[in-house]
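WARN retry 2 of 3 for item q-0093 after timeout on previous attempt; input resubmitted unchanged.
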Amino acid sequence: MPALTIRNIPDATLECLRSRAARGHRSLNGEVLALFEEAVGTTPEGPVYMPPVPLPPKPMFRSLRPGEEPKPLSQAELDRRWAKIQKLRWVDSRSTEEIIADIVGSRTMGREVNL
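OK item q-0093 returned
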């Protein structure tokens, strides 16, 4: 097969191509070929081209380096986090035994489940 060399690719463009290739589980060469085929209207031989899936967002918190100590949180931040946790609590007037009995009683044995 013939080969093609592309020179002077801007760093940002190359990084976008690498990201697209990773999202599509392809090599960089495979991604470029798929883009060329799509642009000129030929159909690829082999797997069907699938549009890239967006990357998940970057984590909000960075990892600590070995030996690095975490910064202590202010009392205001601790209070804010505790208030958020308190909102997540499940409040129920029934006893534990009543809740368990309700869960067990609502089960239907032998029913067909279509997933």
